[in-house]
Every structure is written in structure tokens, then in C-alpha cells.
Amino acid sequence: MTTPADVPDVRDPEQPGRLLTIERDALIPLLRGRAGEDFARPVAACPGWTVRDVLAHCSAALTRVAEGRFEEGVFSPESNDRDIADRADWSDAQVVDELERGMGAAGPAIAGAGGRLDGLALGEWVHAGDVREALGEPGAYGGAGLPDALALLARITRERGHVPLHADLDDLDEPLRLGESGGERPPGRFIGDGPTLVRLYTGRPVDGVSAFELAGVEAKELNIYG
């Protein structure tokens, strides 16, 4: 899980797809048989979007990846809104069906993209956490996929030269190193659990979650979507 400072990152091309299939096997059963009002619940992490909107966005994005459709402006806010609108006449079950297929089919395409789409897999996993939280289900931003999600997050932040942070996690035996300063800035320090760390790095609320400590860096600096 942890990459020491003196060992170069090695990409596991199967990791993003593995993360998606682990989450598929956990999330899809939670969605089957849900009442229509559950799909209409607002998602706090995505203002203006409902659970159904988030699921439609994710299913569309993963289907695009699996089919290799990357037209101009893809994944922009406008493109995302169009994808959701295109599925407005679908039943909730059809949206869930497409999501299930996409979470299984996108892995090989992401693996073959040389890392360019790894962040998308992480983002879809985070959106699954958004949905879990909106539905009041336990395990948001955690569960069986957490080890792969943390490893992917750590590698992506290092590749992007993100603000450096050493995380002592309840979920791991060894500290996790995120970001890279090139020696220009001493790393910050996080002590807490993995789901809270994911929340901080993705701009999700941390009010009422497990206690944590953050020193040497502001929470807003960690947000990879900020």
C-alpha cells in the first residue's frame, strides 16, 4: 500500500478497474429495489444533483470510456448535464443497469490508457460514496475498495506534484505518502482514518466524521478538485 520516499511509483494498470468492480459488487445490490423517492434524494456533495443524476453521470462516463467515445468537451459540466438529460426518459432500473455494465466494462480501457483515465476511476468510486451517504448507507468513501482507492489517490497526487502530506491511517500499518514537494516544502501530517482522508482530498464535508488531526497544511489545499 505505502510507497516509501526512495522507491519510484509503479502503476498497476489493473487497479482502477479493480476498484470499480469491487464497488460495483457492493453498490448495485444497494440500489436494486430502491423506491423512486430514494433516487430523488439530493446529493450534498453535488449541489443541484439527485442520486439519480449522480448515477446517470457515472454510468454515462463509464460507458463512454468503455466505448472509446471522447468527443470534444467530454466530461465538461455541459457534457455531464447533457448525459443526464439524455437519460431523463429512462427508468431508474435502466440507469442502474447501465452503471453496472459500465463499472465492469471500463476497466480494460482505463488499464490501456497509460494512466490518463486513472483519476476518472477514482472519481466514480468517490461518487459511489456520495450516493451511499445520500441514501444513509454505511461505508461511504470506505469499504472493500478503500485500499485500492488510497493507493490510487497517493500515486495521482504524487504524479501531479500536489501538496505533500504524510498520513498515519487507522486503516494501514504503514504511513501513506501523498503529493510531492521536490524538497521545497515540508510535508503536512494527517492522523485519522482512510474515509476521512478521502473526504478531505475530494472536497467532501468532514463535519461529524471520525476525529482526525491535520497539521502543516490547510484542508482546502488537499482538495484535488479545487
Automatic annotation (TrEMBL):
Key words, A-Z: Isomerase
GO MF: isomerase activity
Domain Mycothiol-dependent maleylpyruvate isomerase metal-binding: 23-106
InterPro entries linked: DinB/YfiT-like, Maleyloyr_isom, MDMPI_metal-binding
Organism: Streptomyces violaceochromogenes
Lineage of the organism: Bacteria, Bacillati, Actinomycetota, Actinomycetes, Kitasatosporales
Top-level taxon: Bacteria
Record-linked SUPFAM superfamilies: DinB/YfiT-like putative metalloenzymes (SSF109854)
NCBIfam families: maleylpyruvate isomerase family mycothiol-dependent enzyme
UniProt name for this protein: Maleylpyruvate isomerase family mycothiol-dependent enzyme
